[in-house]
Known about the structure:
Oligomer: single chain
Number of strands: 0
Largest sheet: none
Low-confidence stretches: none
Structural class: mainly alpha
Shape: elongated
Amino acid sequence: MRDDYIKEALKLIDDPNILVNVVSRRVKQLKRGNRALVESLEKLSAEDTALREIIERKISYELGEPEVAAPLPPLRSRGAGAAA
């Protein structure tokens, strides 16, 4: 991936973890045959294409609501007379 594309994309998606997830998901789509939303005279990798799409604001992302995990049931200890 090109450093200049990463730096520009980080200006729009400032959390590197989110940027990696957005790029990764878009790369999978591109490799499955989805059409690129940007044109380039040079041959770009799928990763660079995804970054360019972010930079040119052709794709965006939306964070979902955080899931609240259900509490785990209490552990039962096995006593000497308990069956396995």
